[in-house]
Amino acid sequence: MRGTPWRLAAALLVLLAVGCKAEPPAPLRVRPVEALLEGEAWWRDAVFYEVFVRSYRDTDGDGIGDLRGLIARLDYLNDGDPATTTDLGVTGLWLMPIHPATSYHGYDVTDYFDVHPDYGTLDDMRALVEEAHKRGIRVIVDLVLNHTSSEHPWFRSAVQGEGQACRDCYLWSATDPGVLGPMGAAWHPSPTGYYYGVFWSGMPDLNLANPQIAAQMRLIPRFWLDEIGVDGFRLDAARYLVEQGADLDDTPATHDWLKGFFAINKGIEPEAYLVGEVTSPLAEIREYGPDELDMAFEFETARAIVSAAKTGLAGPVIVAQDMDRTAFPGGRYATFITNHDQNRAMSELGGDQGRAKVAASLLLTGPGVPFIYYGEEVGLQGVKPDEDIRLPMPWNAEPGVGFTSGTPWRAPYPDPDGANVAAQTLADDSLLSHYRRLIALRNQHAALRTGEWVRVRSASQSIHAFLRRTDEETLLVLINLGAEPVASYGLSLAEGKLPGRAGVELFSGATVGMPKAKRDGGFSGYLPLPELAGYATYIIQYR
User: Residue 115: which of 154, 145, 141, 77 has the closest Cα?
Assistant: First the structure.
C-alpha cells in the first residue's frame, strides 16, 4: 500500500519525541505569505457541497455509503458540461472525515494516512479525486488536528505509560484541574492520570505545542496533497488547537500554530485551500487570516439566513451581510445555511418549500463562498441527535431511497412530500430546480461570485434588495422573504447609479426599466417590477 511509508515516518517522529536527540525534519519549501495573497484563488469562484460519505451512496449493499458510490453520483453534482441543466453545478466538494475512526462520524481518527475500510481504499480516493477533477470539481477533506481517538495507537501507548515519547503527544495532569469545555468536563480520568479532551473523553487533545507533534502534522497535508491529490482541507475545531492555561479557545498560541501550518500547506501546494471551523463571534473570526486560514465559516450569517427565511423579515440578514462586508474585505469568508452539527435547514423552516427556496437564494446570491449540505437541495429533514441530521441521501422514493440495496446504516427520513432527487429533478418548480438555476447563474456571473455587495433599501421589511457588481456588470437582486406578493416595496440607493438604459431579469428574460436618478445621485422609490411574488427571487442585470 502506497500509504505505508508515511505511517512509518509518522511512527518515527513519535519515537523521536521530546527529550531524544534527533535531527529536525527537513525544511519545507515555503512561499512568502505576501505572494500567496496576490491575485484571485480558485476557491473564490467555487460553490461547495458537503458530503457525509457514509450516507451518500452505497455500492456493495452493506448499508454504508462508500467512495465508489460518490464517484457514481459525481455527474449529479457536476457532469463537466456547462451547457447541461440536469446537474447541480457545484465546483467544490467537502468530504466529512474519511479516515479510519472509532465512531460512525469519523471525528475520532485512528490513522491519518488511510481511508476508513467501510468507505473503500486509498486507490478509491485517488479515483474520486481524478474523476472529480475531470468534471471541474475540486476536493477538500476534513482534517481533525485538535484530537485523535482514544483508540489511536499513540494514545493507547500514552495511557499505558509506555515511554515519555507517546506520553508527550497528549496533555496530562496528576489531579483533575476541573476545567469545563464546550461539552462539559475537559479533563478525564485514566489509570495513569487525567488527560485533556476538550470535547469528549473518547477524543483526547493532541499536544500541538510539542515540536514532534508539529512535525507529524507536516506529514499529513503532504501525503493528502501530493500522494492523493486533494485540493485542501476543512480544519475541524480550529479555534481549540493550542490551549494556554485556562484559556481553551482563540488563544495567541493557536494563531501562531495556524500561521506555521498555513505556510507548510502553501509550501507543499500554493493553491491548497484551508477553511476553518471557527464558531467564535465575528470579532474573533476575523483574526484568523489571511496568513492562518484562507477562510473561516461565518456562523452568524448562517443563523441570520435561517432567521430571515423563517420570519419573512430581511432585517437579520441585512445586518449580518453588512457587518461581513466590513469584517471580510473581498468576501473572504465561507457561508452556509446549516451543517452536519445543526438541525437540518428544512426542519428549521417547518418543512416549507417557499422558505427553503428563499434561504437558498440568500446563500447563493450573497457574498462569501457558499457551502451546501448534502440533501439540503431536495429538502431532506432531520433534527438531533446527530445521526438523524446525517441520514441517507434520498435519491428516490423506494424503501432504501436509492441509497442502498441492503439495510441502511440509519433509517432514511420518511418522505411523504417528494423530498428526493427523482421526484424533483424534472419538476420546474421544485427546490432542486431552484438550486440548479441559482448555481448556474452564480457560475455564469462573476458579480454573484466575487462582486461588491451594496445594500439597497426597500420600503418593505420582507424584501431583501442589494447590488452585486464588478467593473463589467451590475446585478440587482430582489428576494421576497414573505409568502404574500408585495407591490409597495420602493427601492432606494443613497448614491451612485445603475449603468445602461434598461435591465433584464435573468430568470424570466423580462425587460426592466431604469430608475430616475436623484439630482445628488442615487435613486428612491424605484419599482423595477410592478409586483414581487411571494417567496420569489429576481436577478436583474444592468450593463
Answer: 141
Whole-number Å distance between alpha carbons of 106 and 100: 7
Residue range 209-248, pLDDT digits in tens: 998 888 888 899 999 999 999 999 999 999 999 999 889 9
Residue 236 bears catalytic tag: yes
Cell (9 digits) for 119: 468507505
Single out the residue of 313, 303, 309 nearest to residue 335, CA to CA: 303
Cell, residue 308: 430571515
Residue of 50, 114, 243, 277 with catalytic role: 277
Query: Which are the contacts of 527, defined by CB distance < 8 A and separation ≥ 6?
Result: 487, 489, 490, 491
Cβ(497)–Cβ(463) under 8 Å? no
Task: Calculate the CA 358 to chain-centre distance.
Answer: 19
The total of other beta-carbon atoms located within 10 Å of residue 508's CB is 11
Helices then strands, each counted (H, E), the chain: 17, 21
Compute the CA torsion angle 465, 471, 472, 476 (nearest 10 deg): 10
Distance, C-alpha 101 to centroid of its chain: 21
d(CA 187, CA 130): 43
Is 168 a catalytic site residue? Answer: no
Among candidate residues 114, 236, 243, 294, the one labeled active-site is 236
**DSSP assignment string, 175-204:** S----EETTEESEEEETTEEEE-SS-TTSP
CA–CA separation, 208 and 462 (whole Å): 48
At 208, the pLDDT band (50, 70, 90 cuts) reads very high
